[in-house]
Amino acid sequence: MKTCRILMPIGSLGAGINPEAFENGLTMKPDVIAVDAGSTDSGPAYLATGTCKYSRAMLKHDLEICIAGGKKLGIPVFVGSCGTCGTDNMVDLFAEIVEEIYRERGFTGRIARIYSQQDPNVLKKKFDEGKIYELEGAPVITKETFDECTNIVALMGAEPYIKAYEEGAEVVLGGRTTDTAIIAAMPIKLGCHVGAAWHGAKVVECGAQCTEDTEAKGVFLTVDEKGFLVTTLLPWARCTPYSVSAHMLYENVDPYRLTEPSGIVTTNEAVYTQVDERSVYVTGSKFEQAKQYTMKLEGACLVGYQTISLVGIADRAVMAEPESWIKNISEYVDTYIRKLGISPEDYSFNFKAYGYNAVIDGPVPAGTPAPREIGVLLTVTAKTQDLANQISKVFNPYLLHFPADPNVQLPSFAFPFSPAHIPRGATYEFKLYHIVKTEGPFELVRFKYNDIK
Length: 453
Hints:
Elements: E1 4-8, H1 19-27, E2 32-38, H2 45-49, H3 56-73, E3 77-84, H4 88-105, E4 109-115, H5 120-128, E5 132-134, H6 145-148, E6 151-154, H7 159-166, E7 171-174, H8 181-189, H9 194-204, E8 219-223, E9 227-232, H10 241-246, E10 257-260, E11 263-266, E12 271-276, E13 279-283, E14 286-289, E15 294-313, H11 316-320, H12 322-339, E16 347-354, E17 374-382, H13 385-401, E18 421-437, E19 446-452
Parallel strand pairs: 1-2, 2-3, 3-7, 4-7
Antiparallel strand pairs: 1-8, 4-19, 5-18, 6-15, 8-9, 9-13, 10-11, 11-14, 12-13, 15-17, 15-18, 16-17
Helix pairs in contact: 3-4, 8-9, 12-13
């Protein structure tokens, strides 16, 4: 029976691989080490600026463990979505670190870079041809949107990783990629069950998140011609049918369908069987090949500058109705801002009441006890940093003394910092969350190889 074994050492490269778990994974004789290095979880700033959220030192720490393990067993290492955002310069950063490791360790071999950052002019042509459409919840775009984005990436599928491996690369560093593609690539290459390859990849994409013991960080995936087996890397860690099946709900609107560039994974007939305390075997996964190859586009841009102010409030009158207090101070101060001749189009502001409803937005259910204290965060967004600063300063005296009842003496609240206004700098937003139709898996990607001797 055709079989492929994948060591997934951590859900996000740069977060710190568990060395004990990794070594245990090597003893299970994997055919490939696959690890994801990117995400949109931390917001649009990383894509807009082409930067990584992890430190270079931690990236090198995890990459060195993976590369040394790959060299020890003579197997490839696949890394997807390099540098959080997967832009070309982040792929180059990872290549720089890998080559540094090779030189320091005396390694030789071929390193592949796969780029998926997009040329706005190419996408504008696609837009004119009607080959770009939005995903649910995506903003309406125009042809000009592509020029507004500072960086645009397209999410690759498994095929570029297979191609790079077939062309002799032992370390494959990819730009923005679907989380599953780097894991599904090798079992597909080796002729394993395609539905099982994609479904298994989805289950283990976040490492030990599909187990009951996330501190183990990594997991081991075995795909064969019928299904896949998920096994923990530490003897005390556990996998269950619940923990394995539940991961189809992670970042996915449908627990039975998962869309990839080349088709759709369906899991409504999947059967999850407990093999032992550490392992679950899954059969019944299916894959529907798409007639049209597509890639998801992600684009982000600068939208303004922000200044924040934080104030701590323990006033009982404010605590009784924080939403009313926020509404009243917003309306009161905004009248002063308008008197300064500042156009409403040039700024915006919002409040979050931490300890009340800053995390779970909206009205608090009736009967909820009043908090003992809240931390009110004012965020001002404006066209320039100076304007954001000035508007936050208009708020300053009222953040310190604005009463819940205007007929009583002024209360005093607490600023934890001085000065109270804190310039936060540039702020960004996603502009593209769209699909582009392509002429196959390689139209919008580029390859570069470096042979280290």
